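Aim 2 progress update. The chain analyzed this quarter is reproduced below.
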Amino acid sequence: MFGDPVEHSLSPVMHNAAYKALGMDCEYHKFRVTPDDLEGAIKGARAMGFGGLNLTIPLKEKSLGSVEPDTMAQAIGFSDDTIAGITGSVGHNTDGIGAVKALAAYGVDIPGSRVLILGAGGAARAVAYQLAKDGARVTIANRTLGKAQELAGNVRSVGDANGTGLEELPGLTADADIIINTTSVGMHPDTDRTLVTADMMHAGQVIFDIVYSPLNTRLLLEAKKAGAVTIDGIRMLVLQGAESFRIWTGIEPPVGVMEQAVRDVLGSK
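Predicted C-alpha cells:
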C-alpha cells in the first residue's frame, strides 16, 4: 500500500491474515509515498515485481498517467485504489463495490431505495456511482453545494442522483431509507459533533458510517438511540480488501478471517 499518511492503515493486518490462512507465500506492506513521488514509486514496484498495489489518500486520483483505469475508475474520475498487474497496470476502484457488498451483508436491498450520502469527496463519488448504477435513488448532501451538484450531475450518467446542501438535512433524513456518512465528521465520538442526530433518524433506517476507527462513531451512537440499523466501516474496509485480493490473485479470500483480524486489533485499542 502507498499513501501519506499510511501508518494507521489496517490493510496489512487483514491481507496478511488471509495469506496465512490460505498458506500463500505472500506479504502485504505499507509505504509512505507522497503525491510527488507516486510515479517513481509505481515504477519501483514494477521493477521489484510487486504483485499489486493499493493506493490510499491522497494518491487515489494521482495515478493517472501511471496506470490505465478500468471502466469504473474512469467513470468516477480516475480514482484508483487497487492496481493489478504492475506490468501493464490496470487501475480499479473498490470503494463502491465494498459499500454495496457491506449493505448486502445486512440484507439491504439497493434497487429503488432512497439513499442519502453525506459528503462529496472521493469515497462519496465511488459509493454514489455504484449505488445509482445498482438502482438506488441517490441524494448527495455536502457543505459546498456546488460540489454536491457537480457530483450528482456526473452520477446521473448511470442513474438517479441529486445534490443539495447540508441545510436541507432535516427533511432529507426523514425520507431516506439508507444514510451513508463518507466524511470524517464524528471520528472522535466524545468530542465531535455529528451531521445527523438521533431526533433526525427513526427505527428501520439503515445508518452506515464508512469510518472504521473508532467502531462507534458519533453518528452510529446517535443511530442506536433512534433504534436504526447500524453498519460500521469495518465491513466495507474488509470487503474492499477482499475485492483487491481477488483482483491480484484470482483466489477467493477468507473474508471472515480478514474481518476478525481487523476487529481483534481495533478491539484492543
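The CA atoms of residues 80 and 93 lie 5 Å apart. The longest helix spans residues 233-249. These observations will guide the mutagenesis experiments scheduled for the next reporting period.
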